[in-house]
Amino acid sequence: MSLLIYQAALARTYLDANLRTAVRAGDQSALAEFDLSPDEFRNIQQLICDRAQEIDLFATTLQRKRVERLSLAYKLLRGHLGPNRWKLLCDRYCAQVTVQAFMTPEQDCARFGAFAKENLDPPAEHADRFEDLLIFEGTKAEVDAVLLPQWSGNAPSDPLPAEARPYLAPHARLRVLRYLPQVLADWANGALPRPVPESAPVHLIFFRRANGADVKVMQIGRWLAALLDRADGRATLPELVEQIASLSRQRMTLQDVWKSMTALASTGIIAFSRPQGEPS
Amino acid sequence: MILPTERLGVGLGYRPELAADLDRYPGEVDFLEFTGDHCFSPSLMAQAQAWSRRIPGVCHFLSLSIGTAEPLDPEYTEKVGEVLRQLGGPWFSDHLAVTRVQGVDLGHLSPVAFTEETVEIVSRKAIYLQERFGMPFLLENITSHFTLPGASLTEWDLLTKIVERSGCGILLDVNNVYVNASNAGFDPYDFLRGIPLDRVLQIHLGGAVMRDGVMIDSHGHPVPEPVFDLLEFVCDNSPVSAILLERDRNMPAFEELAGDMRRARSILDGARTAESAPAKALPA
Ligand SMILES: [Fe+2]
Fold first, then answer.
1. ipTM of the complex
2. How distant is the Cα of A212 from the closest Cα of chain B, in angstroms?
3. Alpha carbon separation from B119 to A10, A264, B10, B134, B235 (Å, rounded)
4. Residue B8 · residue B58 · CB < 8 Å
5. Does pLDDT of A276 surpass 80?
6. Residue/partner pairs of B14-18 with CB below 8 Å, 24 or more apart
7. Contact A46 B103 (CB under 8 A)
8. Do B110 and A10 touch (CB under 8 A)?
9. How far apart are CA B185 and CA B181, in angstroms?
10. Which of B101, B118, B246, B249 is geometrically suited to a Cys-Cys bond with A7, CB 3.0 to 4.6 A?
11. Entry pTM
């Protein structure tokens, strides 16, 4: 067996408790993907049986490190669940979702958000707050997990051509909440959060400026949110302004929209597809 | 590669929470160790750059995974180079470990096999890293609760062979030596006597704690007395330039950290003043 295959098979067994149980029980199919001979399988089986306690302790350390990263990404959720429920949720997640090849720690955090959404059963009186909390922290994790090695978008020319068609950058997300993020954070300190009026929800953009940069969250107005929601790289700015005209009593001027779009483009939140073209 | 001889002194690992104390106690921290992986974030890189203009710094990485039997990850290595270009330093370091294999990121340090094959794999990469970045590379010994089967070398023989073959230096974590010795039942001084101490440039000094009969490198407890003894032995017998106090959990008041740092500094200073005197006898 090459050392690389041996290392890869070991890495999998460190990370997956169910796999360790199967290998200990002699189930060769557990490591089938590594194409091991019966002798090679026995070699690994022997290690994880002979040093069972030490390997399990090491596996616990790996999981602790994984949960530490989740705890950082989901500080608010952890605060609200309390240590016991948080631990239960993390244990379930780690048992059901093992670390896979090319899964970055950021992608792991993003995946946890989706898992928590499906598996949390919050008390009914707090259901909408938990929902917002998960949207808030889950979207941050999701944006953090976007790989941005090359993406730079199209810098807008000044002035923007009338046919410029804006679209939301791949590392930006638009979300609507019923609670202000600050209110959700105060909730952790014991304050009872009050939602904003239903007629005026909180519109947020989550984005990053560069690879490795922290996720930023910016609150935007209703009309801009509506415009970005429709910005798919196909409609021109005048077309978008026309589409959202009914949302504002005061009709937005093209010039206002122009200014906002230019500002958003300079932070990389939106880009422009080439005239008559598809998004680049 | 010729190793630098300038003395850095006694330092701490940089973390943003330390900034206020670094300001309040100027002169207590001789150098900062920047975790290179954290500096991939532009905001932490900006902080590290600002601090490195005030206090000398060295970069320490976590995920080169130098023990994996596949080439270095080109993207990660490129990022390492970028951090080194921006922060510089007299050397850079990472662990003698496997952290990633075939795209699977363990998120932590796992042990390498103590074999000639590992010597070959690690040496080749250490040579490459030193040539590529034009800077000495130091390998740090890790803790491990088990050794992989088929070992033909001891841990210290493995480290020695890699250092001799590649010309790299050693970041000796004396706490890790203490922890492995306690768990595996060997004499920590056998480890120290077994490695080329003249290649030790930096030391990691940390806390350990016994949990369920197993010694753990906690990075969250005071430095045990036997670890200070190991430190003294190494300082008396090697050209140590820098001692880093590792503490990243249960952070005590800065004064407590400063106390351990002063003690480490006096050990380093004592070793320096006794430089012309014959080396201390090795403990039996
Ligand atoms: Fe260390």
1. 0.89
2. 4
3. 19, 52, 31, 22, 26
4. yes
5. no
6. B14/B47, B14/B48, B14/B51, B14/B57, B15/B248, B16/B44, B16/B47, B17/B251
7. no
8. yes
9. 5
10. B101
11. 0.87
Chain B residues whose CB is inside 8 A of the A207 CB are none
DSSP state, residue A232? B
What Å distances lie between residue A258 and A142, A267, B255, CA to CA? 29, 15, 56
Indicate the residue type of B259: G
Q: A residues 77-106 near B, CB within 8 Å?
A: 99-105
Going from the C-alpha of B179 to that of each of A55, A64, B151, the distances in angstroms are 16, 19, 19
C-alpha span between A88 and B194 (Å, rounded) = 46
Q: Interior CA angle at A60 toward A75 and B33, to 5°?
A: 65
Measure CA B217 to chain center. 13
Q: How far apart are CA B59 and CA B33, in angstroms?
A: 6
- Which DSSP string do the residues of A4-17 spell out, in sequence order? HHHHHHHHHHHH-H
Burial code of A194-209, b = ≥16 C-beta within 10 A, e = fewer? eeeeeeebbbbbbbbb
**Residue from B63, B68, B83, B101 whose CB has the most chain A CBs within 10 Å, to mutate:** B101
A11: closest CA of chain B, how far (Å): 7
Contact B42 A55 (CB under 8 A): no
The Å distance, Cα A103 to ligand 1 centre, comes to 26
CB contact under 8 A, B104 and A213: no
Nearest residue of A to residue B145 by CA position? A54
Domains of chain B: which residue ranges?
Answer: 9-271
Q: Which of A163-177 are b and which e, b meaning 16 or more Cβ less than 10 Å from the residue's Cβ?
A: ebbbbbbebbbbbeb
- For residue B273, the distance in angstroms to the closest alpha carbon of chain A comes to 42
pLDDT value for B221 = 83
> Which sign does the torsion angle of CA B198, B203, B207, B212 carry?
negative
**What are A55's two structure tokens?**
């390997």
Residue among A65, A104, A212 whose CB faces B108 most closely: A65
Q: Looking at residue A274, what is its pLDDT? A: 63
Query: Which of the residues A5, A7, A90 would you substitute to probe the B interface, choosing the one with the greatest number of B C-beta atoms within 10 Å?
Result: A7
Is the backbone peptide bond immediately before A159 cis, with ω within 30 degrees of 0?
yes
Say whether A218 sits in a helix, a strand or coil: strand
Alpha carbons B62 and A151: distance in angstroms, whole number:
27
Backbone dihedral angles phi then psi of residue B104, each to the nearest 5 degrees:
-90, 125
Q: Which two structure tokens, joined as six digits, stand for A133?
A: 């909390």
**What's the N-to-C CA distance of chain A in angstroms?**
46
A 10 A CB-CB count for B150 gives: 12
Residues of B in contact with A44 (CB under 8 A): none
Q: Token pair of B196, please?
A: 């080329």
- CATH architecture classification, B9-271: Alpha-Beta Barrel (3.20)
With contact defined as beta carbons under 8 Å apart, do A225 and A174 qualify? yes
Distance of CA A101 to the CA centre of its chain: 18
- Give B149-170 pLDDT, tens digit per residue: 889 999 999 999 999 999 999 9
pLDDT lower than 50: segments of chain B = 274-284
